[in-house]
Amino acid sequence: MNIKDNYLKNRKNIFFSLNKDIQNHREKLINIFENDSFDRKNNESLKNINLKNFIDFNYKYLIPEETTVINNNQENNYSIVSVNGQCSSFKDDKIEITKISDEDYNDFSENNTIEKNDHFVNLNSLFLNSGFKIIIKKNNNIKIKISNIVTDDDLTIFQKNNIICEEGSSLNLIEEYENKNNATSNILNVIKLEKNSQLYHYLIQDNSPNFNLIITSHSSCKKNSTYNQKVYNFSEGYVRNFHYSELIETNSETNLQGIFFLKNNNTSNNKTFVKHLAEDCKSNQVYKGILNDRSKATYFSNTQVDQVAQKTEGYQLSKGILLSDNASYFSKPELKIYADDVKCNHGSTIGPIDENAIFYLRSRGMSKIAATKILISSFINEELSSIDNEQMSEIIQKKLVRYLSKVK
Amino acid sequence: MFLEIKDLSVKIENKNILKKLNLNINKGEVHAIMGPNGCGKSTLANVLAGKEDYEILNGKINFKDNDLFDLNIEERAQEGMFLAFQYPVEIPGVNITPFLHSAINSKRKRMNEEEIDNLSFAKLLKSKASDLGINIDMLKRSVNTGFSGGEKKRYEILQMSILNPDLAILDETDSGLDIDALKIVTDGVNKLKSKDNSFLIITHYQKLLDYIKPDYVHVMVDGSIVKSGGSEIAAEIEKDGFQKFQ
Fold first, then answer.
1. Among residues A239, A371, B146, B202, which one has the fewest Cβ atoms lying within 10 Å of its Cβ?
2. Domain boundary among A333, A355, A377
3. Does any CB of chain A come closer than 8 Å to the CB of residue B49?
4. Segment B36-62, tens digit of pLDDT
């Protein structure tokens, strides 16, 4: 079924389909799909992916019977179970959670420029069926853990979340995606950081082989704010992690880190696009992949420094270990600099595990497999030891042990 | 015989390196191999340790009644063979202390000995490090990472003294060491020397052999041992170079 028919058939189950402005916007999106020749050469949202699987799909959405649970189990600590992308409303003096509204939709869609060529973002806007908005109120320091559950096979979740950190607030957000169904989640997180706010955003992805996870996030940082994202991808199913970041006011910062552990025929597509739009801002990216069997990963990164963004510091680094001759990792870090007083660099190294290091460790009595595992662990040691959340650290270590147990 | 190398011929990338090499080492003996650059000394050390880049064309090696070629790299180490590397490999992210702890326990396991616990190991490591003038802070670092040339060599000797091998092969351990570091390193070797273990010392220079007295000195040229004798050979080489043996 083509996109248009699919949309028309299901629109009664899609958010905001009675809103005229949104209808108009969606008609434009349908036109993009109908007229786009899908330029795989220049459009990075189309590279290394079988787009047909995602465009020609059977739409299915179930409003969850289970109500979502929001627990305020300790002071300033909240845990949320989001079911099929939905979360019930909650409000106290520190945070506010509401269902996504048509205003939120418009706010993003009309002002968004950098993702306009991203077909998965467009699909998300077109078939939107879930999502919520979280506001962290001024000067509060909050921890939230969200478990994202998909209840049934064949569901297609199109979810948009808005996360707003008000002035002076700090949010430590852990999102878990651990789904066993044969389903697809296409999630767009729109994150706004007001002046002097901070967000530490951890994403743990560990889905079964038939679960497709497409996460796109967009952060915008105002003065003295910092957005930190750490993604740990242990999924056996397809995962796409794209992040678009805008540093819109001075002294703002974005730190992006991704580690992916791939095996079998799995693919992980990663892309970052950081726009420095003000003076004295920093961006830092480290992406590392461990690829076994016939797995494949991409890392496309673009850091763009606007003419006004003097004193920018921008770093990009990607590294990959290929544990098999059939695994592949494509890495393309790019810098586009239009200011003249900046410190930027980028680098990428990909290759098999160091045979000399293996020999050295084995010559001290360690087995080949133990030496391989110790070298894999050491490859990501810096990133794992920098996790300042004990609970997170334990979760990641357990998953790492599980991944390593399959390395032969 | 503790180590017996018979007619060993080895090649790498179509280049014959070792050519019918013979060498016998008994328990408790210290042997030195001297030879010019490129004669195959490091190849011999690597082949003994089990590096897999080489093709064995001919010959046999027996080590403690084992056919060495039946043992893989780690089994050789667990059986008591130790190679002090000429260029120790930097391994960022692998901490020295747990690495060495795991190494000693892998050997003990093979020997059906009880594994050494954390506390006892920490004490052992601290005492051995102190003997070698190694700062305790260094033990918190990653293996060889950010070490100076001298620190790397000292750390190799620390590993050797912890693992207490039956046969230690020192591949140009003296290269890159200043005189004080050379003294510390050779003291470490001399402390370990006993009637129950043997040493194979590979070097270019007599200097090292002033500190570690060898029982036998062998001259290696073009992949074979061309002369064997006592310490007087080292003095002869120091005086006249390798030219006369080629």
1. B146
2. A355
3. yes
4. 999 999 999 999 999 999 999 999 999
Structural domain harbouring B7: 3-245
Chain A residues touching B88 at Cβ < 8 A: 360
Same domain, A392 and A371: yes
Quote the CA–CA distance of A244 and A275 in Å, as a whole number: 8
Greatest mean pLDDT range, A77-86, A194-203, B93-102 = A194-203
Tell whether A370 and A287 lie within a shared domain: no
- What is the span of the domain harbouring residue A43? 3-355
- Nearest CA-CA distance, residue B162 and chain A, Å: 11
Number of domains forming the structure of chain A: 2
Question: Where does a domain end: A315, A336, A355?
Answer: A355
The tens digit of pLDDT for each residue in A356-375 reads 999 999 999 999 999 999 99
CATH of residue B96: 3.40.50.300
Given a cut of 70, is residue A334 above it in pLDDT?
Answer: yes
Domain count, chain B: 1
Distance from CA of B52 to the nearest CA of A (A): 9
Contacts 24+ apart (CB under 8 A), A378-384: A378/B91, A378/B92, A378/B93, A378/B94, A378/B142, A379/A288, A379/A290, A379/A319, A379/A321, A379/B93, A380/A259, A380/A288, A380/A290, A380/B93, A381/B92, A381/B93, A381/B94, A382/B93, A383/A230, A383/A257, A383/A259, A383/A286, A383/A288, A384/A259
pTM for the full model? Answer: 0.89
In this complex, is the C-beta atom of B85 within 8 Å of any C-beta atom belonging to chain A? yes
pLDDT tens figures, A7-49: 999 999 999 999 999 999 999 889 888 886 667 777 777 777 7
- Distance (Å, whole) CA A51 – CA A318: 25
- Within this chain, do residues A232 and A311 fall inside the same structural domain, yes or no? yes
Q: Give yes or no: residues A51 and A71 share one domain.
A: yes
Instruction: Supply the ipTM of this predicted assembly.
Output: 0.95
Chain A CB within 8 Å of residue B102 CB: yes
* In the predicted structure, residue A115 carries a pLDDT above the cut 70: no
* CB nearest A362 (choices: B73, B82, B92): B73
Among B49, B99, B110, beta carbon nearest to A363: B49
Residues A108 and A133 in one domain: yes
Q: Looking at the structure, do residues A256 and A133 belong to the same domain, yes or no?
A: yes
Chain A residues with a Cβ under 8 Å from any Cβ in chain B: 354, 356-357, 359-368, 370, 374-375, 377-382
Shared-domain flag, residues A277 and A363: no
Which among B83, B99, B104 has CB closest to A363? B83
Same domain? A289 vs A372: no
